[in-house]
Amino acid sequence: MHQPLVARKLDELKTAPMDFAFLRKVSYGCKQVFSADRWALTGEAGVFLDPFYSPGSDFIGIANTYITELIARDLRGEPLAAHAAIYQDLYFSFYRNMLSLYRDQYALFGDAQVMPVKVIWDYAYYWGVLCPLAIGGRLTDLNLVSELRPQLEQAASLNATMQEFLRRWHRSRSPRSPRAWLDQQDLRWFARLNTGLHDALDDAKARERLRANVELLHALAGSIGEEAARDCPALDVSALLAACGTRAKPPLFRGPARADRLLLQIA
């Protein structure tokens, strides 16, 4: 285990650590979590993403929602096989899509220019797609999921494109940026995306909201592409601008975007 910064700090303090742990490759998946044979896995017994953003409780809640529905079906004497398979496919798709937020991304976590943009994107993707399904009580609404499958697949594909782009942006730029501060609450559209999670929506409004959120993600891709191009003019941002198209781009920063404004308060 090679942790030179920790070792240097301990040498400065002239004290021995009370405890220390460092883990690599903490994410893991699972072959099966829901079964028609009346068993299921939830939480870390099944899959685990990453400590960052603390998604563990969310995925416990998602898994428990599906497990509860399967138990209710069993108590009603209804067959389980089809729904167990569908719920598992949905659960694993949520896991795979969220895993891309972490896979090969830790190198850019210390980048004061790229990381705040990544945080904005990651939250927008999370609040815009997965949270409305979970908080809105629609994880088991298979009609909605089927109807909006094209939009959900577009969002997943765009997220994968964005995560790869953020890695390229980080590798293309100088690692240093001046210290500064940016409050997420200054981004009105971003704050509305969060507060809107508690809106009571009927089925039609829920569908409308999810479609609008996916449209917002496409527009946000254009904002990020333009910001990255200002920071690294040689960087290819064509994929993000194409994803945005003619949509109105939401502002990333209050006033002109500058490298010295890019530190972020993480809510």
Summarize the structure.
By secondary structure, the chain is mainly alpha-helical. It has nine helices and four strands, in the order αββαααααβαααβ. The protein folds into two domains: 1-99, no CATH class; 100-267, no CATH class.
Report on the structure:
By secondary structure, the chain is mainly α. It folds into two domains: 1-99, no CATH class; 100-267, no CATH class. 54% of the residues lie in helices and 3% in strands. A hairpin with a 3-residue loop joins strand 1 (34-35) and strand 2. Helix 2 packs antiparallel against helix 3 and helix 4 runs antiparallel to helix 6.
List keywords for this structure.
4 strands, mainly alpha, two-stranded parallel sheet, single chain, 267 residues, 3% strand, 9 helices, disordered C terminus
SSE map:
Layout: H1 4-13, E1 34-35, E2 39-40, H2 56-75, H3 81-99, H4 114-135, H5 142-147, H6 149-172, E3 182-183, H7 188-195, H8 203-231, H9 238-244, E4 264-265
Parallel strand pairs: 3-4
Antiparallel strand pairs: 1-2
Helix pairs in contact: 2-3, 4-6, 4-8, 6-8, 8-9
Structural domains: how many = 2
The low-confidence parts are: 255-267
The largest sheet is: 2 strands, antiparallel
Helix content: 40-55%
Strand order within the widest beta sheet: 1-2
In sequence order, what are the helices and strands, one letter per element? HEEHHHHHEHHHE
Assess the beta-strand content as a share of residues: under 5%
List how many beta strands DSSP finds: 4
Shape: globular
For the residues shown, what is the average pLDDT?
A: 90
What distance separates the N and C termini?
Answer: 32 Å
Q: What's the tally of helices?
A: 9
